[in-house]
Amino acid sequence: MDPAQRVSALIEPAVVDLGYRLVRVSLGGNRR
């Protein structure tokens, strides 16, 4: 596997999770 591919495979889920949390927080504060 290409090193860059491996790095993006590791980073992408974290970026998605972070962005999702940010959007959720900005939309609804701490509401679940």
Kindly state the mean pLDDT as a whole number? 88
Characterize the biggest β-sheet.
none
**Percentage of residues in DSSP E strands:** under 5%
Uncertain segments of ≥5 residues (pLDDT<50)? none
Q: Supply the number of helical segments.
A: 1
Helix/strand-derived category reads: mainly alpha
Number of strands: 0
Q: Please trace the helix and strand order, writing H or E for each element.
A: H
What is the percent of helical residues? over 70%
Distance from N terminus to C terminus (CA atoms, Å) equals 38 Å
Structural shape: rod-shaped
Q: In angstroms, what is the radius of gyration? A: 13 Å
Provide structural commentary:
With 32 residues, the chain is mainly α. Helices cover 81% and strands 0% of the residues. It is rod-shaped and about 40 Å long.
Write a concise keyword list for the protein shown above.
32 residues
Task: Give a short overview.
81% of the residues lie in helices and 0% in strands. The protein has one helix at residues 3-28.
